[in-house]
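Write out a record, focusing on structure:
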Amino acid sequence: MKNWQFVLVGLVVVIIVAGAFLSTAGGSKPYFDDASPVYYFWSVQCHYCLEQAPILEKLAAEGFRVRSMDVGVKPALVSEYAIQGTPTFIAGNGKGEQKVGLTQEAELRDFLLRNGAKLK
């Protein structure tokens, strides 16, 4: 291989590792809990998911949790759960009622309460 090819391969590896790190870093949010029956499909590239985060943080203070389903890290989730866009919430461990798109605090609180996502 030529020097420029080594540099190119090195850059690709750095980008992939950095992307994986940034995507998994979001898994430490206070509103994520794998015990939650409500799945939250999101991506770090999603503008509406960024807007959803402060609402989820407020609800986390009340004890609500969602299970992180990062479609940026696991794109197969999109077809597996027939996700039309992010953010999306699906109750019943991914088989029940859905909320698609940015969801305001009161509506999301009702949805989470109705679907057993108050864990704390």
In short: The radius of gyration is 17 Å. Confidence is low (pLDDT under 50) at residues 20-26. The chain has five helices and four strands. Residues 3-25 form the longest helix (23 residues).
